[in-house]
Amino acid sequence: MTPTLMRRLAAEVIGTAILVTFGVGSVIAAFTVGAGEITYPGIGFISLAFAIAIAVAIYAFLAVSGAHINPAVTFALAVTRRFSWVEVVPYIVAQLVGATIGSLLLVASFGTRAVDFGGGATALGPDVSYGQGIVAEAVGTFLLMLSIMAVAVDKRAPKGWAGLIIGLAVAAAIFVMAPLTGGSLNPARTFGPNVVQSIFGGAVEWYQYPLYILGPFIGSVAAAVTYDLVARPREVPEGEPRADDRTVSAEKDKKPHSDKG
């Protein structure tokens, strides 16, 4: 049976909170251990933490809500007609709420150090222009969304790999983009720490936030459209329905004697 909208929104809240608590939390942890500095090896551990947090969220909630945990992903799926536009706003609100909860949990865990070290908020690196930031976020999110299309959306993909591959894609993007933009790839991931920093009087670069919306939205849509045109043309026969495909489940629920297992 298809999960109710409230269950799916709850999954998005929890999944995004996990992403922020353990992904963004690794940034604060790295600053704590490094006495306020993060070296490139430190970025590697941060990337790994994001990969693991995302993998856990996907394996836990893929079959419930699709485990978007990212407004850019939700938007791209709607653009390519894989997700209802009616549910886009509720999903995005749930993701923003989850990110804020995750950031609050970090303040509760690290205390004032979380705020002193920037709360894990993202910002442009030295000598990185606004335009470069948009491009960097778009390119990084392109890789993320391409992996989502390949292993979580395409019904021909082998099952069971989505969490691992998508998590690794995020890690690879952070490896490259972290020095430029912090490697957000996710408007919710940046929103949560910014809000909590504002609440507790920390420094916030709100004027930069639009680039963390534009870049991921552009990159995600470009990846989804590219995948449809190049790797998965519409005329290609589908594979067997996936267990986490809510559209298929909904169609089954309409049939009186169908197998809903």
Protein traits:
10 helices; disordered C terminus
Structure description:
- This protein has helices at 5-33, 40-65, 71-79, 88-110, 112-116, 130-153, 162-181, 187-199, 211-231, 246-253.
- It is mainly alpha-helical and 261 residues long.
- It contains 10 helices and no strands.
- The chain is globular and about 45 Å long.
Topology:
Layout (H helix, E strand, L loop, with lengths): L4 H29 L6 H26 L5 H9 L8 H23 L1 H5 L13 H24 L8 H20 L5 H13 L11 H21 L14 H8 L8
Helix pairs in contact: 1-2, 1-4, 1-8, 2-7, 3-4, 3-9, 4-8, 6-7, 6-9
Order of helices and strands: HHHHHHHHHH
Binned, the helix content reads 55-70%
Mean pLDDT: 90
Number of helices: 10
Q: What is the percentage of strand-forming residues?
A: under 5%
Most strands sheet: none
- Uncertain segments are 239-243, 257-261
Structural class: mainly alpha
DSSP strand tally: 0
**Cα shape:** globular
Write down the Rg.
Answer: 18 Å
Distance between the termini: 8 Å
Concise summary:
This protein has helices at about 5-35, 40-65, 70-80, 90-110, 110-115, 130-155, 160-180, 185-200, 210-230, 245-255.
